[in-house]
From TrEMBL:
UniProt xrefs under SUPFAM superfamilies: RmlC-like cupins (SSF51182)
Catalyzed reactions: 1,2-dihydroxy-5-(methylsulfanyl)pent-1-en-3-one + O2 = 4-methylsulfanyl-2-oxobutanoate + formate + 2 H(+); 1,2-dihydroxy-5-(methylsulfanyl)pent-1-en-3-one + O2 = 3-(methylsulfanyl)propanoate + CO + formate + 2 H(+)
Name of the gene encoding the protein in the UniProt record: mtnD
Cofactor(s) named in the record: Ni(2+); Fe(2+)
Annotated site (Important to generate the dianion): R105
Protein name according to UniProt: Acireductone dioxygenase
Species: Metapseudomonas resinovorans NBRC 106553
InterPro entries in the record: ARD, ARD_bac, RmlC-like_jellyroll, RmlC_Cupin_sf
EC number assigned by the record: 1.13.11.54, 1.13.11.53
Involved pathway(s): Amino-acid biosynthesis; L-methionine biosynthesis via salvage pathway; L-methionine from S-methyl-5-thio-alpha-D-ribose 1-phosphate: step 5/6
Family listed: Belongs to the acireductone dioxygenase (ARD) family.
Subunit structure: Monomer.
Amino acid sequence: MSSLTVYHESSPDLPNKVLTHLDDIASTLASVGVRFERWEASAAIAPGASQDEVLAAYRTQIDRLKQEQGYVTVDVVSLDSDHPQKAELRAKFLDEHRHGEDEVRFFVAGRGLFTLHIDDYVYAVLCEKNDLISVPAGTRHWFDMGERPHFVAIRLFNNPEGWVAQFTGDEIAKSFPRLED
């Protein structure tokens, strides 16, 4: 079940609120400029599926997003617990960073934890199959796929050069809960 846990940045052990209803999650995130929607991921895709399989299965949704928001490129992240570089890939995005463009993800299988650091608050968004999240450019955040990754996410870009992570150097991510396997 998708969820949103909101913390003050000074109290990583004491959430201010935990939300599990879509409307509550979406409205809370919208208040800080983050898009969160539930889409239909109806095609049977398993972690480890090829990019071509995923893109073909979700062509209609991808075309809709490209038309709505002007995204120009798309790719797929598909990882399972057998991936030989899972630890290296996980570590890559566990530290707080930001991107020069929006970070858009449509989860078509599995789950991952986006944690957003906005003003004085931390928003931990557990994204699961059917969830679409769009994190605005410049938002400080980190992502955890867990020790045993199991997810497939479609990524959309306005400018692939903007995707390069700019690490903030803040150690805050080490204080907050990670994705539990």
